[in-house]
Structures are given as C-alpha cells and as structure tokens.
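Form 7-S
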Amino acid sequence: MKNILISMAAATLLISQVASASVLVTTELPESAYITVGKYDIAWISPWSQFATPGGIDFSYQQAYGWDRMTNAQYNEIGGLTAQNFAKVGANVDYKTGNNLDEASGANLQYVVDGDPLFDVAVASPWFTTSNWIDWGQGAVGQWSLADGDIGGGCEGSCNESLAVRLHKDTTNVPEPATLALFGLGLIGSGIARRRKV
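Output:
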C-alpha cells in the first residue's frame, strides 16, 4: 500500500510539472522577469532558437506591451549580453536565494555551467513559449538567437537562447503636469487679466 501511495504521489508531481510547462502565462511580464540596459527592456524568452522553438515563440499577448524579437542592431547597440546580465537582486527565479524556481510561473534555470549566477535570475520564457526554463550555459557564452539570425556559435538554428526587447518606458524625464495645477494657474491668470481691465 505504501508503494502505491508513493507511486501515485510521484505520478501526480510529474503530471503537474508537465502541465505547468505547457501553459503560456498571459499576464503582463513582471519587472522581475526582465532587465533594463540603456533605453531597452530585455527579456530572456526561450531555451531554443527563434527559428526552431518547439511550439513557436508567441508574442500575441506580450506584443500589446511593446515586446518584440531583438535584432542584431539592437544587440550591438547595447554592447552585447551574457547570462550574468540577467542575474539581479529581486529577479523572479530565486536561484541564489531559494530553490531555482519562480513559483508563480514555473520558470527555472537548466544547464548551469560556465559560472553560477551571481544573484537570482530574470527568466521570461513562460510568458513567450511553452518552455519554462532557459539554458544558463549557452547564455553564459553568448549563444543568442535574434530576429535576423543566431550569433555566438553553439547550435545555430536549433538551441541558441532567444531574446525579446522593447523600449524602456522612462516617465521621469518629462513629467506630466497635474490637472489641478494647470487649472489653478488658469484661474490666477484670468484674475490678473481681469484686474488689469478694471
């Protein structure tokens, strides 16, 4: 009886892991799942090349938030990336501080070679593919898949890691004036104009 219960528990765990890996997350990508470099937000979205991802890369939901495939020109503009760029305090996959899992999305790291992450890691694959992991080792040596081709050697056209990008929404440069402040200035201006006429 004990063996049957253990077998049932193991089967349930296995099925739940497979099920969680096959569902695309349809919420806005949280800030903890991407990095910002210069004027770009960058997400590590797939353990596969953009040209060979099983099931494809799905931008249908995230495109509404400005996400698209990173191009070679954008990659060169930021000066390149390695996996360590995605290691940051507060990232969604708690590799350094926990169990190598984002409990909300199922995201995790696989193939951790060529240096462990220095912090937790920003992983966005569950929001763009049915894969819930990224391969750290390929990102560590810069084997990326971009919209206009794969770079960095590796297994081009097959298993290089895919990136997505959007323009960073920086609202601190041009603050929007408050409506009441403008209304108040208008009242003061009309009061001054009225006194001059009298």
